[in-house]
Amino acid sequence: MKHPPYDERDPSYLGMDQSIHREDHLSTDSTSTVATKTADTIYGLTAEDWDGFSGVGDYRNANGNTHAVMMDGHSVRDESIDPFFRTPKDAEETYDCVVVGAGISGLAAAQVFKQQAPDKTCLILDNHPVFGGEARRNEFDVDGHRLIAPQGSAMFFPPLPGSSLFDFYQSMGFDGKELDYQALSSELEAMPVANTTYAGTGENLGMFFGAKFGHPEGLWVTDPYGKKLEGTPFPLEVKRQLLGQLQPPVAEMLPRAKTFGDEASRALDRISMEDLLIRNHGYTRDMIRTYMPDAASGAGSSADAISALADYVPDLLFPYDTKQGSQMFPGGNTGIARFQIKALIPDSIPGPATSANLFRSPINFNSLDRPDQPIRVRLKSTVYSVQHEGSLEHATAVSIAYLEGGKLHRIRARSVVMAGGWSTWRIVQDLPDSHRGAYQQFFRMPCLVANIALTNWRFLAKNGLSEAVWFEGLGNSFAVRRMPSFSVNGTRLSPDDPIVLTLKIYFTEPGLSLQEQATRGRMKMLSTPFSEYERTLREQFQLMFGRWGFDAKRDIAGIILNRWGHAYLCAQPGFFFGTDGTPAPREILRRAPFYRIAFANSDLSGIMDHRASIAEAQRAVTQLLA
Ligand SMILES: Cc1cc2nc3c(=O)[nH]c(=O)nc-3n(C[C@H](O)[C@H](O)[C@H](O)COP(=O)(O)OP(=O)(O)OC[C@H]3O[C@@H](n4cnc5c(N)ncnc54)[C@H](O)[C@@H]3O)c2cc1C
């Protein structure tokens, strides 16, 4: 892709030399979140090729699965750690409970443990430099503005009063209600601007078509649905499908599930989402695969590989106040994780437990792992072995081994919650085949979340746009969003303000098995250097927006990439209720603890949702304490 005013050989091509991307992030400061960078390679990439620029603030050097985390994780996977260390030796510390994973589920497990067993001790171990798991944020400093965007987990959904989630939120001082969002500057007042990063179908949407549609120089159609897709290069038949103008044979339509477990939900679980779209909407397979890149975005895979029930499970399990709608903290569900850490260790974030303060105040990392406190969080610690001491029936403790700063440690606990998800079957050494086999039916697709900071978005606003979708290149959509008022000191959103656009980049390949899609996607995502992604994104934005005065060199203030190797659990048909009378794999893990070890993480619910993370943690800890 070439643009006449730019020369690819020029080091400043499209802003590739901008200092914000090249600032020194190779510090080895041990008191902060800053990780040590090495020249070792993984998937052929050094730490610098892998991590790239990672922003500022608490989450600097903690963007997605970092190079350091991958190096440690792979030494566990490849069993390259000396087996000597896998054999029990004296434990350095003993806890009542050890939780593996400090994502929302692991933090919730510790919260429930603290509530139900206040006199007991609990240690949470996590491999990343900051707690939160997929609920972490990126921070940019652009012209004196601190800009925040989610790395992964994004939206929360106001719970219904009386629900377990409502009580859980309340217990940490969070009311869970609709947030107040910033107002718009006078010139934008007529424009609907979202309060999440997800594009809708309103008049503020632009649809872009490129070479794939015979328009190498690009074609925009604004307000495409308002115009009934007129002017788009979609074939007529595709337009009719996208506009919902086809009437599928009513006799073949599957009914909606009303409750999780009813006959309709079981029937949906037997087929793929793609088959459901064909049956109930009259779409063709080719149309779904070519023109609906988002058909199964909640799972990060193609619609043919996902249970038709998967999309409905969140609402069946966790009905919420739809009048208030989906909500988003500045850093997505990082806002929830920060409430959680505050509830566990009150001085972990100084000041009151309010959304505004928890957003603004920095994490006090020194408070997380002090010897005198009942709940401790130990970061940069990769657990590689969990095993009952002695025979399963008579074991009174579990031995846990982990790698931290190149050193191996062994501790012991009376009980363990495995909240790290997919890696559990590699770590629990005495896990029976039934459980191991169940975990091997959990497939996780990769996802790359790119946060792109812009100095302004006037080039969009002057065309009446704040959202875009496209069908080729990296990502497929974005939405400019209004930030919660508490994060912007009451200022109104203007097109001259710096903003961050969040792009999700999927690696789907319809027609392949989930396992193949996941492996190939992971290889592709993890072996591509930061600079290549950066160049492609800059070129893509220049092609898309250059016609409106956008200049990648001038207007892109920074790019942070978050590589999630195992981002999304993909629930294949049969995941929820099993196939041919065999139990669903998740039920094998949920129905009881394995002696002193219980299992949490959102993936046990089959959906990527922090509400599932919390519910699974509540179940796991309650099982252990019973
Ligand atoms: C791109 C993306 C967007 C999403 N958007 C939303 C959304 O809008 N709303 C929503 O509710 N949910 C969303 N989710 C789902 C998200 O998965 C959950 O919300 C939630 O954050 C998951 O929390 P968890 O604790 O269950 O798992 P995780 O966040 O994965 O936490 C597990 C933690 O355990 C650590 N760990 C694993 N193995 C080990 C080990 N051996 N040793 C030490 N530590 C280990 C992991 O590194 C991680 O830190 C999204 C997910 C992704 C990827």
Small-molecule binders here are: flavin-adenine dinucleotide
**Shape, per Cα inertia axes:** globular
Number of alpha- plus pi-helical segments: 20
- What's the total number of strands? 16
- First and last CA, distance: 62 Å
What Rg is obtained from the alpha carbons, in whole angstroms?
24 Å
Short description:
By secondary structure, this protein is of the alpha/beta class.
Q: Would you kindly provide a written description of the structure presented here, covering whatever features stand out?
A:
With 626 residues, the chain is of the alpha/beta class. Helix content is 26%, strand content 17%. It contains 20 helices and 16 strands. It has helices at 19-22, 47-51, 67-77, 104-116, 164-171, 236-242, 263-269, 273-281, 285-291, 313-317, 334-344, 355-360, 424-427, 433-439, 458-461, 514-527, 530-545, 552-555, 585-590, 610-625, and strands at residues 94-100, 122-125, 137-142, 145-150, 205-209, 219-222, 375-378, 381-388, 398-404, 407-418, 443-454, 467-470, 477-479, 499-506, 556-570, 597-599. Strands 1, 2, 7, 8, 9, 10 and 16 form a seven-stranded mixed β-sheet that branches. Strand 12 (467-470) and strand 13 form a beta hairpin. The chain starts with 18 loop residues before the first helix and ends with a helix. Residues 1-5 and 21-37 have low confidence and may be disordered.
